[in-house]
Fold these 2 entries.
Entry 1:
Amino acid sequence: MEILTGSISAGLLIGMVFALVALGLTIIFGVMDIVNFAHGEFLMLGMYTALLTAQATGFDPLLTIPFAGLVGFMLGVICYLGFVKYLIRGPMVAQLLGTFGLMLVLRNLALFLFGSEDRTIHEGLLVGQSFDLGMGVIVPATKLAAAVLSVVLFTAVWLLINRTRIGKALMATALNAQGARYMGIPTERMNAFAWGIGGATVTMAGALLVNFWSVTPYVGLLFTMIAFAIVALGGFGSIPGAFFAGLIVGLITELPGIWDFIAEMTGFAWMVDVPMTSFKYTWVYLAYFLIMLIRPRGLFGWKH
Amino acid sequence: MPAVLEINHIKVRYSGLPVVHDVSLAINAGQTVCVVGANGSGKSTLLRAIMGSQRIFDGEILFQGQPIHQLSTEAIVRKGIVYVPEEKMLFKPLSVADNLLLGAYTLKDAGRIRKNLDYVYAMFPRLKERSNQAVSTLSGGEQQMVAVGRGLMSNPRILMLDEPSLGLAPRLVDELLDTVVKLKNEGMTILLVEQNVREALGIADHGYILQTGKIVQEGAGKALLESKVVQKAFLGL
């Protein structure tokens, strides 16, 4: 029982962070139907920003979140205005390969600047602390903080999009860009804004992760894949969809614990022998594959 | 009196093929001008050229004496030229109220936006009843009301309606044209593109007949209705 509650709580907590990771991808896709393969690279740069700023200033990594967000916003806007803007005028294949190229450039830039070794935060306000909530639920303080702040940031972005004038204009651009232009909405600026929001949310997610996830220039790919699975499951462009799908994908990554629980309950010896933890993310990708096969518009199809 | 909108000898091409050649027209303040023509005669292209979403190849478009054919669509809208496209281009998952408010995007003054919203609701009471409903749940006629209402939200200096009666039942077409007459009587400058030749020319001050991208005849609305070209080509007389 304790394995189960422990796995579920861990899955939900990391799922909240995953939801924030995927938020930017779904917004960018929703607004201009473009898939950003460099999304995980933005997260990686957010992790480095938080880690290096924390090390340079002595602040806790959590305090570097606003700065990481600012860097991410500018990164997103620059990528859009300097690069993606020209890509979207080309054929679909140019868009796919273009952001794929952006991914390679950013990753190798990180390799050049930061080297290939793993870096980890060893100290901080919350590092090493945890709460025992009973029933096998032991929550590391860093993960709890990351989950809570992720939900806060996620909600803030949701409110920005659903309750403000600029947010409504962004939605109008997403729903019908030509129609939005006929309302006098500067759609080019809205696209840049979507990339800014997308960049800011994912780099802030990176800053939240850095307390308990080591950084290398290669860390992005895993998160790109996770974000893709979440966005596909939640429905391309859907924000509530990204949240619930984030939680589901978080739980899927904790499947090994749930598997162990079932093995324990049923007493099937063969189940214990399956090296489930080695396949942690395989289940995420399998889920992604099945979603695309069975329900390509996701749980919360939005406009498609 | 100088024209509010003046189009001088414009040419538009789609991938090298001319679709509008050497079209000129003018609209004075407070006038209702109607452009009629069959499908594919270049009516919508003409409106898209005015909105800057279709670049012209030659000629010029002047708004209050200033050239606008180099401007972006957003800048043209900010000048007060509002286009209600044939495809409506509504933001369907959003509510009626949200759609209308997006029509006032170029306005900053909250009081004025509120006033315009009340004005649109007074003109189309049905929209007020359904203000919180998603536009996708509305009937075709109601969606057309949203499209026209959204166009009115920004206090346009000129309102361009592209086949507003398309796809509407005859009773709704009459209702819609009544609305156009109401706007005309309030002093709105209107450029109306229609296939309902008889009704449209009946309410227009001035009309143009477009055929395969050329203006073949122009004149006062009612006079044009009695002309040979119209009677032959559109009314089957």
Entry 2:
Amino acid sequence: MPQLLLEIFSEEIPARMQQGAARDLERMVSDRLKAAGLTWDALTTYAGPRRLTLVIDGLPAATPDREEEVKGPRASAPEQALDGFLRKTGLTRDQLTERDGVLFAVLSSKGRATTDLVAETVDQVIRTFPWPKSMRWGSGTLRWVRPIKRILCLFDGKVVPFEIDGIPSDAITEGHRFLGSGQLLKVSDFVDYRTQLEREFVLLDVADRKLRILEQAKAACAARGLSLVDDDGLLDEVAGLAEWPTPILGDMDPQFLALPPEVVRLSMKVHQKYFAVRDPAKEGLAPNFLVVANVEATDGGKALAAGNSRVLSARLNDARFFWDEDQKVGFDAWNAKLSGVTFHAKLGTLAERVERIERQARTLGRQLNISPALSGEAAKLSKADLASSMVGEFPELQGTMGGYYARLAGYDDAVADAIRDHYKPLGPNDSLPVGGVSTVVALADKLDMLMSFLAIGEKPTGSRDPYALRRAALGVIRIILERDAFLSLKSITDVWPGPNLLAYQKAWELSRDDDYSDIKLLDELVDFIRDRLTVLLRDRGQRHDLVAAVFALGDDDLVRIVRRVEALAAFLATDDGANLLAGYKRASNILRAEEKKGPVPTGMVQTGLPNQPEPETVLAFAVGAARTAVETALETEDFAAAMTALAGLRAPVDRFFEDVLVNSDVAEERDNRLKLLGQVRDVMGQVADFGQIAG
Amino acid sequence: MTTSTEPLAFQDLILTLHRYWGEQGCAILQPYDIEVGAGTLHPATVLRALGTKPWKAAYVQPSRRPGDGRYGENPNRLQHYYQYQVILKPNPDNLQELYLGSLAAIGIDPKLHDIRFVEDDWENPTVGAWGLGWEVWCDGMEVTQFTYFQGVGGIEVDVVSGELTYGLERLAMYVQGVDNVYDLKFTKEGLTYGEVFLENERQQSEANFHGYDVDGLKRRFEDMVAEVSRLLAMTGPQGQPLVLPAYDQVLKASHLFNLMDARGAIAVAERQSYIGRIRELCKACALAYVERERAEA
């Protein structure tokens, strides 16, 4: 069966857009062909610096014939409606069929030549392609990511004839801009296309380009006893910047290794797209870099490596200039600058934010028994590096630079560490700050973010979270959960933003219509953190309803919440748990039905009544025993024991429902049984709100 | 075409580019006689990119960025430097090839060096101009900004211009293999760039950072702003608005803003408002320019 080959050849496509474009091309073409009733064996797309390519194998030469029934007006409809329908369908009245008083037309369409469909499809795809940014060029009207130079379109080895805004389809492509022969390449099919391109120094498939980069880069490093510092993001990018990627190992002036390695790496990566190189025998980076060129240079890359090395020196000279200048300036001058930097129009300057973090850190330090003086000092210096030249150049180095500068300036190591690490954790997989002071400042920083933005009513919505509040909340949660033994910090209320409430009140009153109250604001914080905890637990595989069942208890001790959810999940996975849940549902359904009728009796359950069925007595004693056991277990926060205590209810509950009729004719018996069910619900309710659990 | 016997001196680099782009049909213009921050701001680019009339020009434009001054102590950063600017409207289909031809003309062999087109969407918010294109890298160094103009003065362009901006000092440093801009050979005979410009950098840096009277700069800025509207409201002998003189005042205002900025006299909060005002003035000029061309047609 025939093959379709399409190549849209353009000027250089931004690396970051290439793979998304390959997916869009696949989706757009296959949607349109499928809609026309076509099927095929295999469809593949490729994207590279100068071309988007699509190949479909086993595509029929024509679309299938189709019959389609179209619903028309009612037979009783006015003349105009019928005329309109006939015009639309191109049929006459006697060709319509009538069913249940409604007219139908059967339209049959002959299959079309696939080439016609392809010509139409390519036109539509090019004109509506969802590039993140597109442009016009020359005097034309077409939009593409960069100017289109030619369109290759072959079906079954023959050019599919069309023209789009003056660009005719053809069987021609081009090889590598510099390494190729410079000849136009006439192509017959995909294998020929790919082979000719490779001969002309173009690797079509990004996977091949990456493989070539990694293999040659590692080999180049190994030849000098060095090893490559892996960087997948950078690999993706450089694989989109070269059709014939050629790694070259270059030398860097070793004096630059005196700079912090973060600076060297970032400068290489951000500005130059170089990989860093390590000497396995030594600490830190090696005085080398690895550049991925787009040419196999005629001198083996010597001139090119030397050129890149000079450029890198200039870059690192800049970085060293910033490093030296920053050390002459220092924290006081930077902090002074922060009073001129707006943090947020409704929240004042960065200096004001730093004051809040400092107050918060001192309070937390006192509360958690971690030097309030060091915590306060670290907090006070925590944002100063935002005014430094280096962070101005590399915003990614916030915190990192402050840490270096603080150490050089002779501050306590705990302070320097805290400045460096207080942004942590930066996501679910980032590590937590380690020391006590670092942890206190990290909490204070995040808490101020949350409180400030909640105060002015800036909660994240949907995918919009411009101030990364979710990340801040997740950070607070992870610190509380994972550092609890060390900090005796359990609950959200342990980190009350007390010292800054006046500031938050001011921000609230400037930006919101509703009346301020401490309680309202703190409730918003607790709710927000709980929501994030729910998401965190769900991401860890916990069921949403179990989390809700535990949250319903109103606890704000995060550690306890998590342990309770875990114990509950384990319990429900057992036979006893599942059955008891069913029993609970039955009991609470009965109680709910009764509650609708009027007040349900509560109080002491009587035992030893005349004619009292044995299962009723047994359950009464079991509930009593379970209550005591659950209470003891909960006092020591032994949730597994609490679940075991509940498990003891399963058999008595099952038997009770099997043998005893709750709705007895004797009012006294009925009341006693309702009281008993109420107690089952209450005892279980101490552990979790089982009513929230699905199943 | 020189095949790297002796690397080009700074002035020979300029002369080679002039010859090359002159042969491509460009009018070789001289620098604009008002301080600008970039070659784009020359009316031969910003205004000529508007409307539908074809236009081809190339020129050197001294560019002043007061905040970039380093008293002549930084080997790569200057508050006054040269850009080589080419504008081709509409952009020819083979603009990339023409550009690579210019590199060959100044002795850069693409089989020996790594020439790359790296995404860079250019915009200049003060003149409301934007475009898509690349930074062109030679062995990892940005040597040219290559842009297809999509909008100027806040107006979408009718016809797309191709704009090439070469950083002449950097390119020359590359070609000559020099690490310090002041060591560049300005002439073949050995006059250095430092001998021509070092003293200028020292004096101008001091004036930019500490010298100019801030109140005076602010006053003159306001004067220039007022002048733009006044001139635009007037008409010339053929009934045309006085776009060209008005635009000159926009350039002057823009440079005064840059000086105030270097003096540290622009608070963070005021910045956007200043830039916004300059952009509005520029837009007014652009609109008047386009209307004038339409009226003529």
